[in-house]
Amino acid sequence: MTKVLRATGLPALAASLVGSLVVFGASPASADPAAAEVPAAVGEVLTWGKDEVSLRVPVPEEAKSGVDAISAGFKHNLALKDGQVIVWGIPELSSRLLMVPVAAWDGVDAIAAGTYHNLALKDGQVIAWGEYSGLTTVPEEAKSGVVAIAANQDYSVALKDTGEVIAWGWNDLGALDVPEEAKSGVDAIAAGLGHVLALKDGKVIAWGWNKHGQTDVPAEALSGVDAIATAGQHNLALKDGKVIAWGWNGYYQTDVPAIAQSGVTAIATGQYHNIVLKDGKVIVWNYNGQGQMDVPAEVKAGGITQIASTYYHSLVLR
């Protein structure tokens, strides 16, 4: 849901793991000895990936228990606990991004982190804060009746209780050009790098930037889909426990491994990697240039209840 560049592409990164797959807790024989026991789900946030986000800035104490939801930004993270928004990130980030506004101190129902801004949903109203007024100025139609939110670098998306998708921000890549099909009956939304996904009656709808085929929805994702995910230039859909992937495949991130073709219960994407949840355990593929696949022992143990990811790091909730 975040992106790094507002230009027409992203530079190739040097350190990649091509054709890689990491599965944790797949069987007793393969389990990490240091993580033999599956912990109880206590609402603790765990994170890994790019050093400056997940290692240099530890998870704050208040996000180590009782958290209800998580969202990953570019160099910061959000957590939701008892209706309160918790934000943390690298110290160099603007206070406008890291300081939660008074309106989001309590009663919040959902959160979404972008690169330079954040969203919270409270009583059907979108609250936005961050570095640029074009991203934090919420349109009137998003101030009531909203049921879901998503954010990327330069735009936001909201889903109304009528099933209508609305979008605002900057439209350099066409993400704000909501098609008629997505103006009613939509059930879920996801924000990618210049493109948007919507789920309507089990069908994936996509619009916006299509340099790598990210809006060319495959036939398999035109019916029966249960969930959608995107953050960069590729997408995931979940159908009957099977992961479907399409879009940019520069690091083989759309080559779904056999283990992710059944029994999957949740999906999330980064720019060059994916993370999915199966039987409370994470499966990660495919790029490791920023440590995306260096999953910590406490995550390997299992007992994971939620997953979130962005460009170079991931969050989980257990």
UniProtKB/TrEMBL annotation:
GO terms for cellular component: cytoplasm. Keywords: Repeat, Signal. One of its GO terms (molecular function) is ubiquitin protein ligase activity. The keyword Kinase does not apply. Residues 1-31 form the signal peptide. Transmembrane segments: none annotated. GO terms for biological process: protein ubiquitination; ubiquitin-dependent protein catabolic process. This is Regulator of chromosome condensation (RCC1) repeat-containing protein.
